[in-house]
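Hello,

Our lab assistant flagged a job as stuck in the queue for most of the afternoon. It eventually completed. Since we weren't sure the result was trustworthy after the delay, we are filing this so someone can double-check. Below is the sequence as submitted and the structure that was eventually returned. Let us know if re-running is recommended.
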Amino acid sequence: MKSLELRYIACVYPITGKFDEIYETNAETVRDLIKEMDVIYGGFVETFINQETGKLNLNTMIYYGERNKPTKGVLDLNQKISDGAKVLFW
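-- returned structure --
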C-alpha cells in the first residue's frame, strides 16, 4: 500500500471539499489513482481524462513529485506512482 500526499486546487477543490489529504492506495499509475478518486469524490475522470482520447484534458494539470526528486507536470496518465509521492491536482 502506498501513502500519498494529495493536494487539490482550482476546479478540483469543489469536487473534494478539501485542500489536501494523506491518502492510502494500491494504485499503480496516475490513471489508476484518478479512477480511484472518481469512486470516492465523483468527477475526477470527467475532469482529468478526455473521454475521446483517453489522455489528460488540456484544461487541467497534475503535478507529481517523488521523495527527494523535483516535482514535474504529468503528461502520461500511465506514469507509475510510488510510496511517499506528492500529487497536486489542478
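-- support follow-up --
The delay was a queue issue, not a problem with the job. The result is valid. The helical segments are 13-16, 30-41, 44-48. The chain has one domain: 2-89.
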